[in-house]
Amino acid sequence: MPLLSRTFYLFSAIHSFLLGLLPIFIPVILWDKGLDIANISWFVALSALGFLIALTVWDKLRAQGNWSLIIALSFIFQMILVGVLIWDTQWLLLSFGALINGAAGCFYWSTQRLLFQSITSDKNTGDTFGNFQILVMLCLKFGILIGSFMLDAEYINSLIALSFFTSLAGFFLLRRLLSHSKDLLKEQQPVAFSLSKILAFKDAFHSKSIFIIDGLFLFLESYFWVLTLYILTKESLLKLGLLIVSLSVLLAFVFFVIKKIIDRTNVQRIFIISTFGYALAWLLRAQLDVQHNDLTLYSGMLLIAFLSSFFRLAFNKRFYDIASQGNSIYYIVAKSYYSQLMILVFFSLIAWFIPVEQLAINQLQSIYYFALPLVFVYLLYGRDNKKLLPRIAYLANKIGSKSIRE
Fold it and tell me: Which of 2, 108, 131, 329 is the most exposed place for a label (fewest CB within 10 A)?
C-alpha cells in the first residue's frame, strides 16, 4: 500500500477510535449534566463557530504544507476536548468546550477529506470510501465499546489516560510515516483561500446548495440522533454503546459487498434511490418512540442505520467525483465553510425557538419532521445547470403548448 494511503487509513483509524472513546457521547454527556435541547443546540452552534475559526488556521498551515503541525494539532485539540468534557462545569462546556470541539472537528475532518481526495480517482471512490467506512466502523465501535464501559463504570482517570496515550502514539506513528513520504508534499499547495474567494464559489452542479444543507444533516445525526438513541435505550450508556456497535457490525458486512458494486452501477440511479431512502430514514426517526415494543424499535434503528449509511456512501462518491473535476482543495474548503455557517445559523434558531414545554423526545421528533423536506434538495446534486435548464425550458414550453391547444 502506498505511504499516502497508509497515512490516510492510519490517521482515520486512530481518530475514529478516539472519537468512540468519548466525543461521540458528547450529546449524552451534555444531557446527563442537566442541559436541555436548547442548550445542546447552543453547544452545536458554538462548535460550528469554533470550526470556522480553526479552519482559517488549518487552511494557512495546509497552504504552507505543514502537515506535521496539522496532525499534531488534531491530537492536541482532541486531548483538550476530553479534559473539558470530563470537567464537571456547564458554563465551561458551553463556551470553551464547544469552541475546542469545533477546532478538533476541523483539524480531523478537513485533513481526512484532503487525504481521501489525494488517494482516489473517479473510478474507485465508491470502493475506497467503502473500505474507509468499514475501517471507521470497526475502530469507532471498538472505541465506543471501551468508552461506554469506562463511562458507565466511572473509570474516568483510566479513560483520560487511554485517550492521552493513544493520541501521543498516533502522532508519533503518523509523524514517522510523514518523514518517509513525499506524497503529501509533492504538489504545490494553493495559497490559503480568502473570504471573498469562498463567497465567490460557484459551480454548475448545485454544490453550494448541497453544502448548506449537508452540515445540518450530519450534525443532526451525530448529536440529536445519538441523544434520541440514548433516550430510547432508557438512558443506559452501556446499552447505547452495545446498540451502536451491533448495528455497525451488521452494516459492515453489507457494505463489504456494496462498496464494489457502487462503482460499476449507474451512479445517478444509485444516488436517487439512496436519497429517497435517506428521506425515509428521517421519517422513521420522527416516528420511533419509547412506547414502541423492542422488535419495532430495534428493527427501525437497523433500517435507519442502513439507509443513512447507504446514502453517505453514494453521497461521498458524488462529492469526491465532482471535487476531482476542478480545484479539489478549493472545493473541500468551500464545503466546510458553507456547511459550518449553516450549522451555526440553524442550531442557533433551534435554541431560540424550540418549544420548551414539550418532552425532549417530542422536541427531537419535531426537528426531524422539519428537516425531512430538505433531504430532497440532494436530488439536485451533480445536475449540470447547462443541461438541466434547457431541459426544464423544453418541458415548460411543451406543457405550455399543450395547454394552448386544449
Answer: 2
- In the chain, the number of structural domains is 1
> Quick one: cell of 173?
506513528
| Dist. CA 355–CA 365, nearest whole Å | 12
Place of cell 451533480: 382
In this structure, is residue 195 part of a structural domain?
no
Q: Which CATH number characterizes residue 162's domain?
A: 1.20.1250.20
| Cα separation, 382 vs 205, whole angstroms | 5
* pLDDT of 320: 85
d(CA 146, CA 327): 40
pTM: 0.87
Whether 384 contacts 204, CB under 8 Å: yes
For residue 46, is pLDDT > 80? yes
Element (H, E) at 123: none
The whole domain housing 109 covers: 3-180+203-398
How confident is the model at residue 274, as a pLDDT?
93
Cell of 325: 473535476
The rounded distance, in Å, linking the Cα atoms of 81 and 77 is 6
Instruction: Give the amino acid at 344.
Output: L
- Given a contact cutoff of 8 angstroms between Cβ atoms, the answer to whether 60 and 167 are in contact is no
- Grid coordinates standing for 83? 479534559
Per DSSP, the three-state class of 122 is: coil
Phi then psi for residue 152, to 5 deg, are: -65, -35
pLDDT per position as a tens digit, 340-390: 999 999 999 999 998 877 888 899 999 999 999 999 999 999 876 555 445
